[in-house]
Amino acid sequence: MPLHPEVAKIIAEAEAADLPKPNDLPPPLAREQMRRLSPPLDLDYSAKKLVDKSILGSRGDIPVRLYYPEGEGPFPIVVYYHGGGWVLGDLETHNALCNAIAHITESLVVAVDYRLAPEHVYPAACEDCYEATVWVSENAEEINGDPNKLVVCGDSAGGNLAAVVSLMARDRKGPEIQLQVLVYPITDCDFELQSYIDNKEGYLLTRDLMIWFWELYTPGLKQAKEPYASPLRAEDLSGLPPAIVLTAEYDPLCTEGELYAKALEDAGNEVELTRYEGHVHGFFRMTSRLEESYQAIRQVRDAMRKVGA
């Protein structure tokens, strides 16, 4: 279908602003640019309370932000990994989104500020995310969460990390995850997939930018085909948590997200796949502009309830 009218307007505004492409900037400046462009908080969809803290990982402190909904708890827990190609993004870039997730799903959202490339290359990000998830599971009562209602969730690179943490939890015998939420996830390092060809430029995320992300995360692409980098290439995808996979029609990552959903289903896992027609990469985070962002979060809420989370 054609581009959603509001999405077309967002793209036109981005083109008119004529800002530098992230891959034309040093990573610290690209990060600052993403931070400046982050959606504002929607007060109608905000958490009741935010708490910043650090948890001790094996490689140092891992900052996290806790978003509490209304109510007394203990709450279902959504461990959230932000997008940004493993290079960009932080707690601020996804603050509005995490507020909305906590409000709509009535869950405690724990956003993880994992280490970024190129300063910290693969597997730093996924190890941080896994260790943070283990900590949340083991300390759920301390933070007023329910350890039996644990969900991992992320967008883009964060969707990759949610998929990888689910694999790690299976391989390392814990923690127990009730649902993995993969929002237009990166699942493979194949830049010749159909959506990379159809949507290589003109829709905010470009093929060239994705190649830049991969090269910074896995230098020389030497480890890019490992399953904890490209989960679609895992030899065994059985025994994983139920999954909800959301993709966008005009997204270079659309094909690999849908291939991963099929691979999970073929391996015997429960999967719900939805393609958001007329939308682009990033729509999930556009909470101040798109009703479909809230619609997608409500879909996540319903999937959580379906699995008892």
Structure description:
This protein has 309 residues and is of the alpha/beta class. It has one domain (5-306): Alpha/Beta hydrolase fold, catalytic domain (Rossmann fold), CATH 3.40.50. The chain contains nine helices and eight strands. The chain has an eight-stranded mixed β-sheet with strand order 1-2-4-3-5-6-7-8, with helices on both faces. Helix 3 (95-105) packs across helix 9 (291-306) and helix 4 packs across helix 5. The longest helix has 16 residues, at 291-306. 51% of the residues are buried.
Globular, elongated, flat, extended or rod-shaped: what is the shape?
globular
CATH top level class name: Alpha Beta
> Can you write the helix and strand succession as a string?
HHEEEHEHEHEHHEHEH
What's the number of domains?
Answer: 1
Rg, alpha carbons: 18 Å
CATH topology: Rossmann fold
Mean pLDDT: 98
Helix content: 25-40%
Largest sheet: 8 strands, mixed
How many DSSP-defined strands? Answer: 8
Number of helices: 9
CATH architecture: 3-Layer(aba) Sandwich
Q: Going by CATH, what is the homologous superfamily? A: Alpha/Beta hydrolase fold, catalytic domain
Compact summary:
By secondary structure, this protein is of the alpha/beta class.
Descriptive terms for the model:
9 helices, 309 residues, eight-stranded mixed beta sheet, globular, alpha/beta, 8 strands, Rossmann fold
Indicate the topology.
Elements: H1 5-17, H2 27-36, E1 49-57, E2 60-68, E3 75-81, H3 95-105, E4 108-112, H4 124-138, E5 145-155, H5 157-171, E6 179-183, H6 194-198, H7 207-217, E7 243-250, H8 254-266, E8 271-280, H9 291-306
Parallel strand pairs: 3-4, 3-5, 5-6, 6-7, 7-8
Antiparallel strand pairs: 1-2, 2-4
